[in-house]
What does this fold into?
Amino acid sequence: MPLRVVGDPEKIVNQVIEEFRKELEKRIAEALEASRSVLEKAYDEAIRSLERSLDEKLRSLEERLKSAEATHEVELRRELAKLRAAKVEEVLREALEKLPSYVPRDRYEAFLQRLLREAKERSGGRAKIIPTERDRELVTRLAKRLGLEVSGETRSGYGGFIAITPDGVVLDYTLENVLGEVIDKTRSVIARELFGEA
It folds into this structure.
């Protein structure tokens, strides 16, 4: 049986092409819309990821900054404490150097004589006396009067002496040692007067 064509074949071809074109445009539009949606989601996720990363880095930097500030503050406080302690020691040293001028000579001499007698008793009368440079003459005179041997050497200090027993025990009668408790209290007073602290 022969094939019978109804209508204009060119028109039919154009109609099919037109429908194919519309379908193709529709699918392209859908693909573009899907691509745009995927890109928007990827962009949004990238932005969120970047924000999270930046937040983490910011927190890390803030923590490091706080740590550095705390460390720096501790170092500053330590340095300030050193400076204050040095100033207290400077004032204390000046006070100790001026101590003989505040104490009458006869009282100071009696004080040293009492310490020398104690050293003599504790050593069985055979202590070797090493005076401080400052009290060399006075201690030498008083020690010889008590029959104690005086070394030719001296020690640094604010006053007093060291006594060495025959068995090598060192008895410290320097002002720094004898007045240790008073000196510690004086440090507190100086710190309070200078810096308003104990």
